[in-house]
Protein 1
Amino acid sequence: MPFVEKGMTVGLFGGSFNPPHAGHALVAEISLRRLQLDQLWWIVTPGNPLKDTRHLAPLAERLKLCEQQVHDPRIKVTAFEAAYNVRYTADTLALIKARNPGVHFVWIMGADNLADFHRWQRWQKIAMTFPIAVIDRPGSTLAFLSSRMAKTFDYARFDEDDAPLLARAPAPAWTFIHGPRSSLSSTAIRNGAVKRQK
């Protein structure tokens, strides 16, 4: 787990990143800037319980490719979930919270994940653990209005102009951040439809 100090604001950007691409790097960059974070942890997961793992590249390979996408020293690429044998996001966030008292974390995800967020194990627990920043993705802009998560936690939504306040807000709290969008997707890259950009 990367080193942090009390009082810091840290974004948590997790995924299988199979493979990582410039779209992921864009989400990380937007998050750092709009949320005014001290750090962003790019968390490479051993595997996603909701996805087919037959075409999942080895963790070490995905970790290396993620590091090649990073050009900001505030971004820390990590795969600590494997060391702790953690499989679900709710467990990952509970572990992070227990080991880092006094640090302000915010969970970061692309809007393409928002529509299915209610399928994640203990999704409401995730929303009650840390604030959430949803970053716009092509074709997913309206998810923040129609998703089950958005409807359930409508009362806890921050205006995106207040995004810098999100990390220090008590959960549940979330915002949807509009901005530049990349049409790249890991699935399309794996299928050979597009080439990964560096």
Note: The radius of gyration is 16 Å.
Protein 2
Amino acid sequence: MENINPEFENDGMLLLQLQQGNRSAFNVLFNKYWEQTYSNAYKRLGDSEQSKDIVQEIFASIWINRQNPINNLPAYLSISVRNQVFKLAAKNKNLTPFFDFLDNIPAHNENADSNILWQEFYSSYEALLLKLPPKRQQIFRLRFHDDVPTKTIASQMQISRKTVQNQLGKAIEQLRITLLP
């Protein structure tokens, strides 16, 4: 195995060495970013095994396609996680339970007026969000619009995680009742 010179342990040099097939450079990058990538996948999926599988696929792909240059590895990993989660969501629609109700909205006409219907739906959705109590609205937007974990929301708002979860449950139920036909 090739040795990595400690003074070259920055991402740019490691990525260049990776392109040349240096397994040690790959191992350093893997060890450096595995946990962060796993955490990113886990916060989106909430499933440890699926998260590990996604991370493994991403790093395997990096090794297989090592000749393709990567300029910003953290950004590349983040986008890869997002894309893998989207692929998994397409296979298993149970990953995003809040938005399942969108699948149940009947599609009477999928033609020229579908864009207008979507805009009307989104306007109704925003109007309903604005009717939520301010704190509940803030919690909902942080969780579902900004993808902030409930633990972080609780810490930021100085409330318990259970309170955050209860407020999310109440917001989701209120939106489901109102938005379902």
Note: DSSP finds nine helices and no strands in the chain.
Protein 3
Amino acid sequence: MTRPAPQDVPVGSDSIRLSAFLKFAGILDSGGDAKEAIIDGYVTVNDEVERRRGRQLQLGDVVGFEGRAFRVQA
């Protein structure tokens, strides 16, 4: 199966918390939704399941959710 090309999401800084990124990028609507998706193991960072909502994302990290991919950009 072909993996989708990540969509670039400019965040305006060198890092951002995972839960904040999910809301900022419009992937999820609320902090509560982001928290649940992360804790339940539905979110990946660089192809690894990530269960820490406070995880600091760096430029170039790729977040996956429901078959879509989003890359953190400056």
Note: Helices lie at 18-24, 31-39.
Protein 4
Amino acid sequence: MTMTEQRSKWVNEAAHSMNLEGLEVSDEYRAESEEYVTGKVTSDELVRKARARFGLD
């Protein structure tokens, strides 16, 4: 499995988990996670963006 495939799997699992909890996956999450999957941002950058979006920084 390539790194891109592995990252895609992790992102899909996270989205599935969110759906199971009754949460909706936002367009922002989808766009930012796609940047992570394609290697444009690191996992640390992805977390930083999510935290900033929710005012946690």
Note: The CA atoms of residues 46 and 52 lie 10 Å apart.
